[in-house]
Amino acid sequence: MNKERLSASVDAELIKAAESAVARGQSESVSAWVNDALRLKLDHDRRLEALAAFVAAYEADHGEITPEEMNQALRRARSRAVAVRELPSEKTAVTRKRRGSR
Hints:
The model has no long low-confidence stretch (mean pLDDT 90). The chain is flat, with a radius of gyration of 22 Å. It has one domain (12-99). The two termini are 44 Å apart. The protein is built from four helices and no strands. It has 102 residues and is mainly alpha-helical.
């Protein structure tokens, strides 16, 4: 793949995250880390565009999706969800917070 040099201003915490990833061996270099981030952003944007096109085509055929239809879909999705771990009780969470642990 062709590479080009890029000069960009980046938030300090992101630079630290990139350098940390390199130090941990999770990325070959800061440039590789930035490439991965840009690739993920591109993939994300493309998926959002595809979703928007799908919704537009669906609504063109079936009419606008109503808030009630969205709520029904949310309820169906939640009813099918499978819990993979138990959430701590409120009392347990408060006790952990007081002890300073997570």
